[in-house]
Amino acid sequence: MDKSSMRGTSKTIETPAIETSPDSRRRLAVSALSYVVPPVLALSLAGIIWEFWVRAAEVPIYIVPPPSEVLKQLFWEFDFFMKEGVVTLFEALVGFGLGAGVALTGAVLMAHSRFLERSLLPLAILVKVTPVVAVAPLFVIWFGFGLAPKILITALITFFPVLVNGVTGFRSVDRGSLDFLRSLNASRREVFLTLRVPSSLPYLFSAFRVSIPLSVIGAVVGEWFSADRGLGSVIIVAHSNLDMVTLFDAIFVLAFMGVGLTVLVSVIERKALFWHESSVVV
Question: Cα-flanking dihedrals φ and ψ of residue 121, to 5°?
Fold first, then answer.
């Protein structure tokens, strides 16, 4: 083949530039709105029905406050709720990181050894079935009233989903790919990094989506027993004072926090698993 034909061939296989036209940006904006508008409309409708019911039934504010009062106080005391929310968010993220780290370590060991799985899985199930509310006072006695008990409670509640999905993911490898790597005399470390880790990512991100909202719950439960800061403490004080407006404000902030963390994990998953069929929008 002469050089001119080779040049012609190379031109035919050039990769086209990614389209960034106004039409593509418009389609992206419409797609984003399709995810945002429906829940906003549903929440707005629920708020209107709630407001109408409370006003029409003349429900006392110390039982169920109207959404207008909740939103008004949240607006005027936004700095207070954000400051307390940052405390809870920090505890949730650190506890989630600790629980996920321990769970992934255990998952790697159990995925490579049936003996370790039979030995460690019953202990993990025991941790799972133990009520967190029953363990929280013990953590306060053992570790004091600082950050430690709240972080440990959060780690405890987020541990099991990551462990189970991690073991399943590390073992869910393509048999043909595994045999091919073994035929190349690949070490267990090379097999793990090049095959088991990519195969486990869909399972791990599914576990993260379950565990990240649980981390917020764990932080709040820890604050109920051992804190004078955070949204969990705000809820306890507001409940004692029958201040339902403040209580609902704290609940709303926690709800948005959980939703925001879940959306963040989903966005990271879409970016990391662009090659996987689970990221394809049907």
Answer: -65, -40
Interior/surface letters 97-114, b for 16+ CB within 10 angstroms, e for the rest: ebbbebbbebbbebbeee
Tens-digit pLDDT profile for residues 6-45: 444 444 444 444 445 666 667 666 666 666 677 778 888 8
Q: What is the CATH number of domain 78-273?
A: 1.10.3720.10
In the chain the beta strands, taken as DSSP E runs, fall at none
**Among the listed residues 49, 83, 80, the one whose alpha carbon sits nearest the alpha carbon of residue 66:** 49
Q: Considering the entire predicted model, what is its pTM?
A: 0.79
Q: How far apart are the first and last CA of the chain?
A: 44
Cα gap 275→186, rounded to integer Å: 24
Taking a C-beta distance cutoff of 8 angstroms, is the pair 162, 211 a contact?
yes
Cα dihedral: 105, 107, 113, 115 (round 10): 100
269 by DSSP, 3-state: which?
A: helix
Q: Which residue has the tokens 């504010």?
A: 61
Distances 127 to 44, 103, 160 between C-alpha atoms, Å: 40, 12, 8
